[in-house]
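Supplementary Note 2. Why include the ligand at all?

Several targets in our set were suspected to adopt different conformations when bound, so apo predictions alone were not considered sufficient. For every target with a known small-molecule partner we therefore ran a joint prediction. The input for shikimate-3-phosphate is given below.
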Amino acid sequence: MIVALTGFMGSGKSSTGRVLSEKLGFPFTDLDGAIGERAGKTIPEIFATEGEKAFRALETSTLKDVVEKAEDNLVLSLGGGTVMEPQARAILAEHCFCIYLKASVETLIGNLSGAEEGRPMLSGASLRERIAVLLEERSATYEETADATVDVDGLSPEQAAEAIVTICRQ
Ligand code: S3P
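The joint prediction is reproduced in token form.
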């Protein structure tokens, strides 16, 4: 079983994914980390030198690679924009059990304040505005792609992971 965590930047995909992998005893992969390793560059460097379109192509091909190489079980934290690519959604639908970590704008602002630097998609307008606009664009896709949703407002990564374990065992 591949448990893939989706949701907006700052919703806790990576921190929850790490705790979840320990609880389930599954290996853990962070898609952003795998992309960086593959490209030999950081995510901001990829955006700066190759642009968003090239990043998305690399993101989808890395997802394909990770999923194909996964032995049996895996916890996989996706990037906030991974599900916006139709080909990525097809890969997820075929191979993964997707959990949407759903967070409010207030929670996201709290988690992302000061952490914008490594996230090119947040540059430009004010943090609140950028989050609100992108979340509006993406919310329906997060919902549609998910096999289950966990409302993470007020939850620690530990509590979110526990909620996911319960879902996975149902
Ligand atoms: C992105 C989210 C980032 C990373 C890249 C683009 C997005 O991942 O993949 O900066 O488009 O939402 P996190 O959600 O882990 O920050």
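The pocket of shikimate-3-phosphate is lined by residues 9, 13-14, 32, 43, 79-81, 119-121 (CB under 6 Å). The mean pLDDT is 96. Comparable summaries for the other entries are listed in the accompanying table.
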